[in-house]
Amino acid sequence: TQKFTKKTLEGLQAAQSLASERRHAQIEPEHVLYALIEDTEGFIPSLFTRAGADLQTLRTAIADVLQKLPTVNGSSRIDDNIYLSPALNRILQQAEKIATSMQDEYVSVEHVVLAMFDEASGNLPKIFRAANIDKEKFLAELKKVKTARVTSDDPESTYDALNKYGFNLI
Fold this sequence. Notes:
Elements: E1 3-4, H1 6-21, E2 26-27, H2 29-38, H3 44-50, H4 55-68, E3 83-84, H5 86-101, E4 106-107, H6 109-118, H7 124-130, H8 135-145, H9 161-165
Parallel strand pairs: 1-4, 2-3
């Protein structure tokens, strides 16, 4: 089994919190996608932007889907009973396969997003279309910043630091 990077685990935890706050019975791919694009410290928002996606449209499209998910009522604490949806489980399994195929030792956030494109079911295709993003555009931008294999649980520190932090002074 693959190990997850810190950012992947943070994204899954944020998704769980989001699902819990909204009283959803399970964590859906949309919870994770929303958490990843809301992570201002992460590089998924900038990858989406570089790939031509409109982040505000993406946020709105995801929020619309989340709004329509069924909620759980009752006095018991929901987060004791929250679990991964079958769709999210498939995405995480696909993310592991992608990480392996890229010879990465950890499942990173980009593997999860690529798996969302591969396993896009339910509302994901509609969300991606609304934001004008597809796997090819995302992958093209990823290849520009991912300059090394993922061999630690904090791979973002090894990604093209100049692209991330550099400024054109000319």
